[in-house]
Amino acid sequence: MSMSIWAPGRVNLIGEHTDYSGGLVLPIAIDRGIRLEVDRGPQIALVSNGDSIELAADGSGDAHGWGRYAAAVGRELALLGRPAVGIAGTLDSDVPQGAGLGSSGALEVVVALALCAAAEFEVDPLELALACQRAERRAVGVPSGILDQAASLLGREGHALLLDCGSLEYRWVELPEELAIVVIDSGERHSHEGSGYADRKRELESGHPHRVRHVRTENERVRALVGALERGDLEALGPIFAASHASLRDDYEVSTPRLDRVVDAALAAGAIGARMTGGGFGGSIVALAAREDARGVLQRTLEQAGVQGWIVRPAAGATRRRTDPSRNPA
Questions:
Q1: How many domains does the chain have?
Q2: Which domain holds residue 228?
Q3: Are 47 and 112 within one domain?
Q4: Same domain, 188 and 251
Q5: 18 and 99 in one domain?
Q6: Phi, psi (5° rounding) for residue 117?
Q7: Which residue among 2, 62, 196, 289 has the highest number of C-beta atoms inside a 10 angstrom radius?
């Protein structure tokens, strides 16, 4: 079994810090992600940028750094009944870590798909997303939601994924052709385990009025944005993005001055709308732009704020492709 497996990162258009409370999210899978070239092996042996891990085929063993995610995925799949079949492969990524683009979720998904393929153990995509979500919690102890893993597995080209994280019902929302999505990395790095992410969840569950208000109004904004996209009402998108960012800054308190500056720079550069995306405390912003002006918006923004950026395409979800040499007919 030789396979090439691809798992995309994600950008959340709206619905921030709502997934772990069973709310609504609207992410896209993007055309940046993690590729794993892999074969079966006696254990889990993976290499990434010269750093290697070796674990038992069921994920047990000592792991550190990014290896914690691979180990946790192996353990969660073992609990689902996956036979202990190992993999050996090389990871290659063009998703920057800590930029709020779902790099850990993509890593979990690509490893999970490889382990399932090696053991000929098939899992429904949503069940696999849930297993990867549990793996992230196991790996780093952060009470994250299902957004990243679901987006990576269920993405559809040209569409956003409207997911109810409570019922797990979902549908795709077609994005207007004339709309481009621009992502700008603030350069401010974060990790969920080292940020206030878990604190915000605890505050929400305890009934903190500002945290509760953010989640309630953010769910309303998800519905409003979906309605505007489906009507083709591009003028309505900017105010919805602005309200979302203000709520994340003031009510949920997960934005930073640097993220705020990048949002302001994108708007000054001509973006239709801009807001922080991801867990906050650093990372990236997402901006909407007219397709013909997207490169200009990106360039003008980076002249004022941010360290790098991309025009991203709403992409298909994770894929597996056999790369075994073709056999000559007998």
A1: 2
A2: 176-312
A3: yes
A4: yes
A5: yes
A6: -65, -40
A7: 289
Give the residue among 275, 212, 223, 284 at the shortest CA–CA distance from 249: 275
The length of the chain, given as a count of residues: 330
CB 307 within 8 A of CB 220: no
Q: Could you confirm whether 148 is annotated as catalytic? A: yes
> Which two three-digit tokens encode residue 144?
């994250």
Residue tagged active-site, from 19, 58, 148, 185: 148
Check whether residue 233 and residue 302 sit in a common domain.
Answer: yes
pLDDT tens, residue order, the chain (330 aa):
899 999 999 999 999 999 999 999 999 999 999 999 999 999 999 999 999 999 999 999 999 999 999 999 999 999 999 999 999 999 999 998 878 899 999 999 999 999 999 999 999 999 999 999 999 999 998 888 999 999 999 999 999 999 999 999 999 999 999 999 999 999 998 665 556 888 999 999 999 999 999 999 999 999 999 999 999 999 999 999 999 999 999 999 999 999 999 999 999 999 999 999 999 999 999 999 999 999 999 999 999 999 999 999 999 999 999 998 754 443
Give me the CATH number covering residue 180.
Answer: 3.30.70.890
DSSP 324: P
Return the beta strands (E) in the chain as ranges: 2-14, 24-41, 44-48, 51-55, 86-93, 159-164, 170-174, 179-185, 273-277, 284-290, 308-312, 319-322
Q: Are both 188 and 263 inside the same structural domain? A: yes
- The CATH number linked to 72 is 3.30.230.10
d(C-alpha 29, C-alpha 157), whole Å: 8
Whether residue 74 contacts residue 118, with contact meaning beta carbons closer than 8 Å, is answered with: no
Domain identity same for 133 and 185: no
